[in-house]
Amino acid sequence: MELFSLKNKTAIVTGACGLIGREHCRALHEAGANVVALDVNEADAMKVASALGEQHLGIGANVTSADSLKAARDKIIARYGTIDVLVNNAAINDMFENPAMAAEQSMFENYPLEMWQKSLDVNVTGVFLCSQVFGTVMAKQQGGSIINIASTYGIVGPDQSIYRNEKGEQTFYKSPAYPATKGAVVNFTRFLAAYWGNKGVRVNTLSPGGVENKQDEFFVANYSRKTALGRMAVPGDYKGAIVFLASDASAYMTGANLIVDGGWTAM
Predict the structure, then answer these.
(1) Which residues are bridge partners to 147 per DSSP?
(2) What are the distances in angstroms from CA 76 to CA 10, 36, 43, 70, 122?
(3) Which of 113, 233, 213, 106 lies closest to 163 in space, CA to CA?
(4) What pLDDT shows up at residue 10?
(5) I want to staple 21 with a disulfide (CB 3.0 to 4.6 A). Which of 16, 39, 83, 157 is the partner?
(6) Is the CB of residue 245 less than 8 Å from the CB of residue 145?
(7) To the nearest whole percent, how much of the chain has pLDDT over 90?
(8) 36 with 29: CB under 8 angstroms?
């Protein structure tokens, strides 16, 4: 079990206050790491960190701003002296304020350019900048693990039928930005793994399936029918994968895409 230990390692999780981000932080803490909960909302990031213990750190930073990330890097190095793990978890998944208008607004034909651009900024540029700022520290110290969080929709196209209710009404369309950006993350992982392999920095993707989070019953049922295990994920289902990719248990693994989706992409 020592292969899975992260004792004395410093691990950063971006988007730490999100549903899965909190679980990533908890998993890394349980494996022994000093966890840096990084989120655009500093107050919430500090709450996530303090809930884990006093040795952990909460930092507010904008993943689309190099200056903001460099300031965070300097705080982390001043406190821990090293950066060993980076989980690029921060991302935007489109939400529409008016449910009655969601189907029309989310159609590709109507999808707003500003929403497309915002997703590119956070989901792709954010991963690039965090990897550049924090990963450069790893490259200089000749070791580290970067874990980029993608999605099953970075591998396969969205099944729009799961967003139809019991009456056959299309309540929503999975918009183009999320699959496009998550697909970019998968291939950016391959680039960075090849680029930094000789520096001892491993870079892998984790592609999770959908997490149940108070969605409409029809959606949960539709989604579950498409998985081999017959259910959506719960937030803690990815804890083992995160620790595996962060630790020496995956020491000979880089440039890979670890798919943890209950069998969604197998069917």
Answers:
(1) 87, 204
(2) 9, 8, 17, 10, 22
(3) 106
(4) 98
(5) 16
(6) yes
(7) 94
(8) no
SS (H, E, C) 238-254: HHHHHHHHHCHHHCCCC
d(CA 265, CA 209) in angstroms, rounded, equals 9
Please tell me the distance from the alpha carbon of residue 241 to that of residue 247, in angstroms, as a whole number. Answer: 10
Q: DSSP 3-state assignment of 3?
A: helix
Is 178 known to be catalytic? yes
Sketch the domain layout of the chain as residue ranges: 2-95+120-156+176-213+234-262
Asked if 148 and 193 count as a contact pair (C-beta separation under 8 A), the reply is no
Structure tokens at 51: 């809930």
Rounded Cα gap, residues 254 and 70, in angstroms: 25
| Residue 41 neighbours by CB under 8 Å, 6+ apart | 17, 60
Residue 24 and residue 2 in contact, taking contact as beta carbons nearer than 8 Å: no
Copy the structure tokens of residue 209.
Answer: 């399936």
> If you ran DSSP here, which 8-state letter would residue 123 be given?
I
Q: What is the pLDDT of residues 35-77, one digit of tens each?
A: 999 999 999 999 999 999 999 999 999 999 999 999 999 999 9
Q: Which residue has the tokens 């996530």?
A: 48
Encode pLDDT of 87-127 as tens digits: 999 999 887 767 778 889 899 999 999 999 999 999 999 99
Spatial CA neighbour of 150 closest among 196, 219, 238, 91 = 91
The Cα–Cα gap between 206 and 151 comes to: 7
Question: Around 250, how many Cα atoms within 13 Å sit in the side-chain half-sphere?
Answer: 26
Q: What's the fold here for domain 2-95+120-156+176-213+234-262?
A: Rossmann fold (3.40.50)
